[in-house]
Amino acid sequence: MVRGKIQMKRIENAASRQVTFSKRRTGLLKKAFELSILCDAEVAVIIFSQRGRLAEFSSHDMQSTIDRYRRQANGMHTPGIDTQQPKHESTDLAKRIELLQISQRKLLGQSLSTCSLEELQDIGNQLERSLSNIRIRKAQLCMERLEQLKAKERLLLEENAKLQEKSGARPWPQSSQQKEAPMSSKQSINNSEVRTELIIGLPEMPYS
């Protein structure tokens, strides 16, 4: 029985379209495998179904093959100058910045309405780890500051001791009570002299 020629147009029947897709996908991946083995070629095939399911084959690492294709394609458009690479890098950078901004808003408690329970749990765990790291770093800085103050105190005490040794001063200043003690002694001597002058000579007898 001779098969009729298949018209190259979309198959309207969903069941027939799915069956045809499965058969031809398998055949295409098989042909890609045979080509890589028989001809020692670097082959990569990526297929997305109508429902978004991925089917792929790569004789080497898929990402390295894609990167090689991009370099080769850019070299074909502009020999010697890769003008498309900065565009790809800027696009990737913009996507990464957008993802970081979304993550930052979620960490700040914003845009949480679309988050699932697992995402909220992950955000909570991340915040707890961040707080733990902050506390550890804060304690470390406090200990370093305390050690610096102790070292400064020891240095000041050593300088003070050297200055006192040079000037011949006492190690510790006198208290106010000690300063007032000599004055009290001098004052007591003066008082005793006054009393001595008062009792010199015979007392005067009253006249009868």
UniProtKB/TrEMBL annotation:
GO cellular component: nucleus
GO-annotated biological processes: positive regulation of transcription by RNA polymerase II
Family annotation (InterPro entries): MADS-box/MEF2_TF, MEF2-like_N, TF_Kbox, TF_MADSbox, TF_MADSbox_sf
Biased composition (Polar residues): 173-193
Molecular function (Gene Ontology), one example: protein dimerization activity
Chief place where the protein resides: nucleus
Identification of the protein by name: Mads box protein
